[in-house]
Fold these 2 entries.
Entry 1:
Amino acid sequence: MLKCRTVWKKLAPLARASSTLCRQNVRRAGLNNGKMPSCVPAGHMSTGPAGGGRENQMYFLLVGVTCVGGGVYAYRTIKGDHQRYQDRIDEISSRPHKQATEEPAIPIQSEPPAVAEPEPQAALSPEEPSPPAPDVEILAPIETTEPPPADEPMVEASAEEAAEPSAAPVVEEEPSPPSEPSPAELTEPPPAPVAESEPTAAAAESLAAEPTEPQPEESAEEPVVEAPPEEAAEPSAAPVVEEEPSPPSESSPAEFTEPPPAPVAESEPTAAAESLAAEPTEPQPEVVAESGDSLPASLQFPSHTPYLLIGGGTASFAAARSIRARDPGAKVLIVTDEPVPPYMRPPLSKELWFSDDPSVTETLRFKQWNGKERSIYFQPPSFYISAEELDGAENGGVAVLTSKTVVHMDVRGNKIKLDDNTEISYDKCLIATGGVPRSLQVIERAGEEVMKRTTLFRKVEDFKSLDKVSRNIKSITIIGGGFLGSELACALGRRSTECDLEVIQMFPEKGNMGKVLPEYLSNWTTEKVKKEGVKVISEALVKSVVCKDEKLEIQLKDGRLVKTDHIVAAVGLEPNVDLAKSAGLEVDSDFGGFRVNAELQARSNIWVAGDAACFYDIRLGRRRVEHHDHAVVSGRLAGENMTGANKPYWHQSMFWSDLGPDVGYEAIGIVDSSLPTVGVFAKATSKDTPKAATEKSGTGIRSESETEDTAVSPVASPTPAPPAVLQKDEYGKGVIFYLRDKVVVGIILWNVFNRMPVARKIIKDGEQHVDLNEVAKLFNIHDD
Amino acid sequence: MTNKTQRCYILKLVKTEDKQQILTFINGGTDHATPSSAELIEEDPNDPYEERGLIFPSGEINWNCPCLGGMASGPCGTEFKDAFSCFHYSKEEVKGSECLEQFRAMQECMQRYPELYPQEDEKVQEYERSSETKQTSQDSASAETSFLQSL
């Protein structure tokens, strides 16, 4: 009816116009044919047909064309309207249709017997023409033309990952009609909950309520008791769900076997929909709960936590510390897929390899340059409280859930789902998922035998396995010339002197750290690496890898062949953005990672820090940084912002690298060898070594000495030192400035230590300095 | 031969493709003898973005200071905050003398986590020592740092 009205409205002016035209023409024709009354003046009109018949034909032609034109226009308008209507229907049905569902709910609840049949269900919906969502339901069983096109978007939607809100409710539509026929087989009470759950199909999570009603019937009392408290944690579903368990518990338990397979079976074809994954999975915690008394208490996770940190690395730990410091009594839950609590990564490619302790792979303790020993773990296990104690802890605490992966994130419902189908809701969430080492395509294509002789180095377990492997083989090759690759090469190179191990490092650049250091320094660094006992093959592109007689043969593009026993791939990090789809978070196309603002916020209540965060740096522009200190700084900042600070990224993080005990550098900002650079160097003395640096500051880890130095005044003048032996190196110590549009955006301090606050200040100022030599003076790289 | 009193350096210009990479070798001591003429922007002590030390410009304690390590965030964080706050705001002649209860509570808590808080006996001794000596308000900052170092 509406259709006709709008169509008529559109056609009316046209109709009027054409009818006037027709009438005019008819009048004229009539005039000519003499059918009109003779009250019309007999005088010839200026437009009168003086020519007689031929003119008549002209007029008839004109009228005909006009009518045809009008008809064509009308047809196209109607067609277009239909298309627009269809588009609108699709668009509306993709939006939550709570209003629509509430209205059918009322007629349904008032007529429970009528609801026993699925047909009245469909029949009820036509009573509500205005809400478009039930229209889809009407159209589904009644009109045959609608379901195929409607099904297509549904099928497509289910083919995609249904994390997108537009897809989710559309997909939900599909199982609800199919599930109707199946309950029809049952007696009245079970269809009642199914029908009742129909109105709640609006929210994605409440669809999960559908099978939960049949499920509580499995063991009448326990899960019903558990279901309300569990779902009570889900605010949006709470009021609706709580009504639901009561009717099913009244119904006979004998029927419970049928509904569970029915919704589960129906959801199978749309199993790709993650929101529907909630459907079959919801029963499982109930099943666990059923036999729950016999299971150990450790499986009882908190259903809600005020602060949820996804990822158990450096950024996450720094955030936890920050939150606990600022919010008294805060309860923080860390969820990590690793089996161990948070630890620091730098020693895995440096200090741990230099340890004299044979049990280092077990203890994971290392001696710092200053002699102090510490573990890679940020805190011993006694620092953390257990997950089940978290809720009840009076002063809060930090709990760590290990070996758990977050597979789905529901931003609207403020909750996440783990790989064991547990749901945990939160108030504030941090995503600090870090990344996964990039693999080489040539290695993945090479097959199982090559893959099992390849290490992608990142975690503690990789260190343990590489340590073991390196003791039992004769030759190892590291592919990659960046930080990780060069550090591992140096570490293994040192070991090569003890055991008979050949260490090869290959990369496409001309020298080690080719993408970071200016060429002259990169060449110099390569020589140093070679002195550590590494065979460096530069400008090497791997073409293929095969396994022959337990040995790997790496074929390079320039024809060289390298034979080795084991490969370590250190070719970069792929940020882990698995949650982006389900959470609806933006992923950056330039740098990878989650796109966040200067305050590290992705969306309300969601922050991202560490390797996975592509953030806006007010000074240096949008970037993504993969360094330890950045993880600490960004994690701390995220923690501050999660507790209401609203501070942007401002304190510039630094990074460092040591190539053996004699050469080390610290850097800050954008250090990219493609930028123009200015270097100022002086002769080095024996004091200018990483070892001396840490001894002087009294700390062990370089980043600690830099970041915890904030209380001291920025321009520290060094105390005069006794004369020291001069080193023979050309590039002994110095400062390298990286420029972008004449502004210093990055600084490397080459064998110059404890001057990072000066460097940080220079970058923060962002000034265009005329003479960089004058700026270099600020570092006081000389001792008089 | 170079004259030590004169500024002397070797400037090497290295051009790689379109990138200019300038190298300057300076003679130790002489070239950087004169103070720098480079100007740095003056720091704003009330800049809200800046990272602060242990005490904010307002006088409040920055619990998130990296210098505190995990003290304020661990299992005994609450006790530590209570004790240290009391000490910080103490106006007594012997700073912190009225905070014995809080410190005792903190010590008790720390004793339950020997792994996390080693050498509690030394800490307590240090505190007792520092509270015995007379502290003036000028020394309060140093008193606090020494107190923290003893932890």
Note: The mean pLDDT of chain A is 72.
Entry 2:
Amino acid sequence: MKDTYILGIESSCDETSVSIVKNGCEEIATVILSQMDTHSSYGGVVPEIASRMHVENITIVIEECLNKAKMTMDDIDAIAVTYGPGLIGCLLIGVGAATTLSYIYNKPLVPVHHIAGHIYANNLVSKMEFPLIALVVSGGHTDLIYMEDDYKFKKIGGTLDDAVGECYDKVARVINVPYPGGPLVDKLSYEGEDTYPLPLPLDDNSYNFSFSGIKSAVINLVHNETQRGNAIRKEDIACSFQNRVVEILSKKTMKALKEYNVKNLIIAGGVSANSGIRNKFKELCEKEGINLTIPNIRYCTDNAAMIAAAGYFAYKKGIRADIDLKATATTSLF
Amino acid sequence: MISLLIDTTTSNITLSIIKDDKILYKYQENILSDMSSKVLPIIDNGLTELELKLEDIDKIFIVNGPGSFTGIRVGVTVAKTIAWALKKNIIPLSSLELMATTSTNKKYIVPMIDARRNNVFAGIYDDELNCIKEDKLISIEEINKLNSDYEFVSYDNINIEEVIKPNIDILKIINKHINDNGTNPHNLNPNYLKLTEAEENKLKND
């Protein structure tokens, strides 16, 4: 069978990335231009600055990727692009470049949902086996997804308020941990002990999550301790917080695996780089005989390889967009 | 010599295909929503109507600001991608200079774009499109100091007496810039004339 090469473009937040992936599983070349250093001086991603940097870099990144792959656009079978969700000004740059390339070279254009991309990052690690449960954890998402087969997504639960990554960032701010808060809270948690009685968030029978309660609990805790003149042990807060988050994520995910009688679990999204989550799931899945896949750290954050990987399966399914493809800030995969 | 002109810097977008001294295709419309998804279909319409292909275009004139930040980026992204991919000559134009092609009996013309908070992006041009005062962000108060030698033009409702609507002359600006040196598409970027709010605040605090 002829090999299929997909060029993926991702620009939904603060990474301008282009990648070429073969047959949805083999990464040929990826270029990621991260803006993290710029945004860190502002304490978070500034959408207008991010959009400005995307437009400055987009053609450079495309060219670099093709050079790295030693390929030309003629070798590409289809162009996949993140059309949403994300920062609208940022998405517009990737979508603008992708639609233009598709028009110039008369190549099929494949719209990819950002979360589908995160899920398919796992296919770059090992071939995804179905049926599976995917736990998607990121700055914008906390979803439990059941997949019966390729590119069939069924949401079985999700966050009712804050996403887990968002909650990490807010807790980081409250305990004075600099940007990017999430990874630093993770690191800090190993230096502390689980001494603070934080609640287990939304510990019920559903597959939904809620992180606003534990966020408020941390805010109140810090506030009250400060009022009383007590020093805050941020390592201990980080440890207590992370333990609770990991516990509820793993509890509900393991329950879903059992109930749906599924033996494959994948974890995806930026927060899947969290070591507490990685370790806990490794331990539990080994015990329960679950086949666990988590992307390499470099595929956890936003990148175009995952968009090209997902794009391959969308392409095979016949999913296409025209040159009037709209970028959408909020869009559902389901 | 076939040129493509793209201006998406305001909601009054202009897409035009020009051959030598003749406008072959002109799309001028006030588009208020989903402008980004309409640019390529409009270009495609023009090319199809003329039985041309993108490859037949020799030069791309891209209006790269000032104006709506998002609007500027939409046009620049399409233009630089075409120029990079097809190795086309690409030339940036000022959105204000394009408005300054409006004909007038007055000595000078002052094109303006609303920049909110009583500010406008404005420049001063003469009737040969020579730039007398370069484009910048300026208060309406400053603009009001100019006398009757100046014709004010803007698509926006600006709090100045006697502002006329632009009636742009595409050939005039193309002819003026037809021999300009092209820019490397990678370096063809927006000309916002304004920092982001975050950058401004940071400068204030530093």
Note: DSSP finds eleven helices and ten strands in chain A.
